[in-house]
Amino acid sequence: MTTEVSNQDLMLTLGRAARAAARLLALAPAAQKNEALTAMAAKIRRSAADILSENRRDLEAAQGKNLKASFIDRLTLNDARVEDMAKGLEDIAALPDPVGEVIAKWTRPNGLVFSRVRVPIGVIGIVYESRPNVTADAGGLCLKSGNAAILRGGSDGFHSSAAIIACLQRGLDAAGLPRTAIQMVPTADRACVGMMLDGLDGTIDLIVPRGGKSLVARVQQDARVPVFSHLEGICHVYVDKAADIEMARKVVLNAKMRRTGVCGAAETILIDKAGAERLLKPIVSTLIDAGCAVRGDQAVQAADTRVIAATEADWGTEYLDAIVAMKLVDGVGEAMAHIARHGSQHTESIITEDTATAERFLNEVDSAIVLHNASTQFADGGEFGFGAEIGIATGKLHARGPVGVEQLTTFKYQVRGAGQIRP
Amino acid sequence: MTTEVSNQDLMLTLGRAARAAARLLALAPAAQKNEALTAMAAKIRRSAADILSENRRDLEAAQGKNLKASFIDRLTLNDARVEDMAKGLEDIAALPDPVGEVIAKWTRPNGLVFSRVRVPIGVIGIVYESRPNVTADAGGLCLKSGNAAILRGGSDGFHSSAAIIACLQRGLDAAGLPRTAIQMVPTADRACVGMMLDGLDGTIDLIVPRGGKSLVARVQQDARVPVFSHLEGICHVYVDKAADIEMARKVVLNAKMRRTGVCGAAETILIDKAGAERLLKPIVSTLIDAGCAVRGDQAVQAADTRVIAATEADWGTEYLDAIVAMKLVDGVGEAMAHIARHGSQHTESIITEDTATAERFLNEVDSAIVLHNASTQFADGGEFGFGAEIGIATGKLHARGPVGVEQLTTFKYQVRGAGQIRP
Lengths: 423, 423
Description:
Two copies of one chain form a homodimer. In chain A, 44% of the residues lie in helices and 21% in strands. Chain A is α/β, with parallel strands linked by helices. Chain A folds into two domains: 2-228 and 402-414, 3-Layer(aba) Sandwich (Aldehyde Dehydrogenase, Chain A, domain 1); 235-383, Aldehyde Dehydrogenase, Chain A, domain 2, CATH 3.40.309.10. In chain A, the strands form four sheets. In chain A, strands 10-9-11-8-7-12-13 form a seven-stranded parallel sheet, sandwiched between helices. In chain A, strands 5-4-3-6 form a four-stranded parallel sheet, with helices on both faces. Chain A has a three-stranded antiparallel sheet with strand order 1-2-16, with no helix packed on it. The interface between A and B is large, with 61 and 60 residues. β13 (369-374) of chain A pairs parallel with β16 of chain B.
């Protein structure tokens, strides 16, 4: 009980310090923030040995815990990954500064001049799992967008994150910015996550979870402040009867197999019944030959003996693996109905040479990202030209799709007058 | 228990119907939505006698309840208020349609063409109190922005709202749009509000409360879906030492007294100590002579014997009445610190001839609306040029400031390719 109370005090102190830092950050010139980012990168490079040694402490502690190999891989740092962190911070420094941009400006008949000006959101809480590099990425993106960050990483990466945070704070120092601009929750007490999701007494404006489905589900369920997140990416490719078969094979293969573990990877392929004779076999065999397991309806099973039967659950499963669900649909209408029922409003693509059908799909499908004749794996802030991203949001408000530095800002109205009063 | 379960079923049916209607509305052409709005207005005019008769039922039922005169006034309809509703719907029809607007468009080096396109949010729940005209305003704004609406008005206005909803649904009919585009919760059971705040099993995307502080506080506290709202408008005018005295008197008087019951009315006046000798007396006497009670610190009390002493609570009070709190501050810095501590991030104004001081105030004050040399009463969607508004939001995400039809939309990305795959 004493610990709980004192951790609550500690968290509130953290929150108030972040709020105070956010006020300063909101006014910090672009050059000062970029100076900090560059200094952080340099400090990370100089501290590589320390960071790797702290990472070994985490890895040794993790060994007794019977964790999955993929988890250990995400936790593991090496020289290349440390360099990637440093380079990532330099890339963020090189992005245009979003703060202060005049998004719109107009004059009313009474002479009042209205400006809609981009400003930081305030304080952003990042809740993540074992990947230590999220510490640097998220801290850097928040700083660039003028927001203070409170980072709470998984306890398994505690020492690695602490070593990285120390570098980030040295960078802040070097640029004359407060260390409290990027803070780390200094305890593994899980109750601290709950406090963050409650908004830390009004000091946290936004939560961004980074991690697996169970983490995101918990954050979405419990957060009392806005959340930018996606629970899953059940992305679809619909191959229309008017598709070019070579393009369809190439795009489907890329959408599914380029990287199977990313949220923009396709999980379900829908094939237009009217074009199945021409399209089905080559697409199925292309996927299977590339090492992908195909689970299909009866028609898809009939196309290749290596296809196994899909169950109802397959249409709502995010495999994140070399597995795909595939079925025939009766044209773009049934494809869109299937997507509306089973999709996650993340990313969907149509392959067709018929522009009218493509435009219908682009207009009617209610997902953050809809593509025509392109791979779903373009669902990525970098591919959009946003520079780095902190994740992809499938919520409808404020940020939808890739969340880059611009999406980490909001706006206010500045109104300039000459003594106007309202009649 | 049986009633509760059946009301839950009823609400879920309402939610699913709204979701289905939203899919159609999202694709409805501007002309069809405008036809519905115009038909609604005509039907309201033709049904004026019915609406007023249903309103009398509500008023008679309210008489036994010992309600405040202001409450009864808000509940009361008359010919002029019915005509205002009809005219309001025609004004909404005349606004530009926000849906489908291409907000941004760019091409990447790989030839992919990205468009950020404005789309409706989906289903909006409106929770309001006794003003029957909110039914028409909110229904019309949601329709224009392509969203389905679920309206839940106070039980005291039930019959009035039902009569208005009937007109709105006849207008939807006339334009070939589903009646389920604007639905009313058909029971006074308060548990239904709770179900809406929970999001009705994922069928409600956004809640907009319209009413007093206790309603808004409950919605903000309990809602599990995003909310556009402001709890209160504790708006400040800071009169700088470099203010023009005539402008300051005129703007302060308007900001406080034009209408005292609106959220953009000023509640606290801060006077720069360095200019007090010139500024304080005329401003205080202007307000008191106009019938405003002034509560001040010692210096303000010394300026006029009619000033009464302010207590600490006055700095955080939204009077919504002919009362103002006033104190001296040590320049723009202390003024901004006072606003950060006591304000509600709604609307603040600075009066000064010193552009540098004004720009500092406009940049540093973290409120939805900041003005220079203009009345805080311009905090209104109509004055911004947005046409009708559904309210003012002080939250930082998505909609900040006046919420008009544009703020009731979101966006998605359409990406047009020629077979691009991600390397």
